[in-house]
């Protein structure tokens, strides 16, 4: 089981976000989900800390991954 | 060497995989991603069997159906080159691996067409976006530009006038989308239209700050301050891997006959990457089935 801190910045309409979250759930990864369409503080955090204006933006222990890329996620999460 | 390599796992590739597996062809399904373009489609009401289904959900069902069959899948691998061997083909993936197959089906689909202007590549994901439905809400209360004049651009503009402070709609041509959408966009109080204007540059250091557009009639260049740019200028076929090998039409689609055969024996293509007229999920799925059945017949005769 991974003990890394995983944050997902997502929007409700974004299909890649849903797939990314489903992937994490299927692999038993606990994550915090921020709906950046509603949560403006999280949106600012995503923009200012990660320099990203795209969803899903996924932070794993502070490392930023943009988009849903299964291979990269597996590598970073050690799956 | 595999008997068959299917490149691409959208509706065409996944359907081809099921048909190939049912014919007990030794098949490798190779793709950068599973699902293809329907993943960015919300409501689908014209895929038979479902009165309404969302794109990602339909592709999930495709995936599950493919998983019923014992075929080899390699995901996360984009194919960069395809070459002919004496008795088949060699496929080279972007992470260095190569695979060999007696026959190949190309089902690599299409991707959003980029503007190809300075600043675009570096600011991708930093204000430049190709998925309005995904990234739209991030630009709440900002000024944004939507580029394009067809239905996708109009839909993006129509969504963004509700979210953004102001929307600039920039199109090379007069608006070509449906009248109902055109009227709605023209009526929006916070939208400015720049028809017959071309994008010349995107400005910004760590994120998009402005866009420069040129009036095609007068040559005048304007600089619009925006935080986001939605590029909605159509799609281009992912056919680079067969460049110089198979015949392509004038817009880069792989030319196939009605049996999904290219001009190279053993090389088949299906779905949106081909010159088949309608780009629809149901059409792509059907084309994938045809390609696999034809490949089966080809392999039997070897």
Give a short summary of the structure.
The complex is a heterodimer of chains A (about 80) and B (about 300). Chain A is α+β, with helices and mostly antiparallel strands and about 80 residues long.
Structural class of chain B: alpha/beta
Binned, the helix content of chain A reads: 25-40%
Largest interface, with Cβ-Cβ < 8 Å? A-B, 24 and 29 residues
* Total strands of chain B: 19
The proportion of residues in beta strands of chain B is 25-35%
- Widest sheet of chain A: strand order? 2-1-3-4
Helix content of chain B: 10-25%
SSE series of chain B: EHEEEHEEEEEEHEHEHEEEEEEEH
Intertermini distance of chain B: 14 Å
Which superfamily, in CATH terms, is the homologous superfamily of chain A? Glutaredoxin
What is the CATH top level name of the largest domain in chain B? Alpha Beta
Q: Which short descriptors sum up this protein?
A:
heterodimer; A: Glutaredoxin; four-stranded mixed beta sheet; 3 helices; 4 strands; B: 302 residues; alpha/beta; FAD/NAD(P)-binding domain; 2 domains; seven-stranded mixed beta sheet; five-stranded parallel beta sheet; elongated
């Amino acid at each position: 089981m991974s003990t890394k801190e995983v944050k997902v910045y997502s929007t409700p309409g974004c299909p890649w976000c849903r797939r990314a979250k489903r992937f994490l759930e299927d692999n038993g990864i606990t994550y915090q989900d921020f709906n950046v369409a509603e949560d403006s503080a999280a949106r600012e955090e995503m923009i200012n800390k990660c320099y990203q204006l795209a969803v899903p933006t996924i932070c794993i222990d502070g490392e930023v991954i943009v988009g849903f890329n299964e291979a990269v996620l597996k590598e970073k999460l050690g799956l | 060497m595999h008997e068959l390599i299917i490149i691409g796992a959208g509706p065409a590739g996944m359907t081809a995989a099921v048909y190939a597996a049912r014919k007990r062809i030794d098949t490798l399904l190779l793709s950068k991603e599973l699902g293809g373009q329907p993943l960015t489609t919300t409501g689908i009401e014209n895929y038979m069997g479902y009165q309404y289904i969302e794109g990602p959900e339909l592709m999930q069902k495709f995936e599950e159906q493919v998983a019923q069959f014992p075929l080899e899948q390699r995901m996360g691998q984009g194919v960069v080159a395809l070459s002919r061997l004496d008795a088949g083909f060699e496929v080279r993936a972007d992470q260095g691996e190569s695979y060999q197959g007696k026959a190949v089906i190309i089902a690599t689909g299409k991707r959003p067409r980029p503007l190809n202007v300075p600043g675009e590549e570096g600011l991708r994901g930093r204000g430049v976006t190709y998925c309005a439905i995904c990234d739209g809400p991030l630009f709440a209360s900002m000024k944004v530009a939507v580029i394009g004049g067809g239905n996708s651009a109009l839909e993006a503009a129509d969504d963004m006038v509700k979210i953004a402070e102001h929307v600039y709609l920039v199109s090379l041509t007069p608006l070509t989308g449906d009248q109902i959408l055109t009227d709605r966009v023209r009526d929006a109080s916070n939208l400015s239209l720049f028809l017959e204007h071309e994008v010349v540059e995107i400005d910004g250091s760590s994120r998009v700050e402005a866009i420069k557009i040129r009036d095609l009639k007068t040559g005048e260049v304007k600089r619009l301050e925006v935080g986001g740019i939605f590029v909605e200028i159509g799609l281009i076929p992912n056919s680079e891997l067969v460049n110089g090998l198979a015949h392509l039409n004038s817009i880069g689609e792989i030319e196939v006959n009605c049996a999904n055969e290219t001009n190279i024996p053993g090389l088949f293509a299906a779905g949106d990457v081909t010159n088949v007229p309608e780009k629809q999920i149901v059409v792509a799925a059907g084309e994938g089935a045809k390609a696999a059945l034809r490949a089966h017949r080809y392999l039997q005769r070897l």
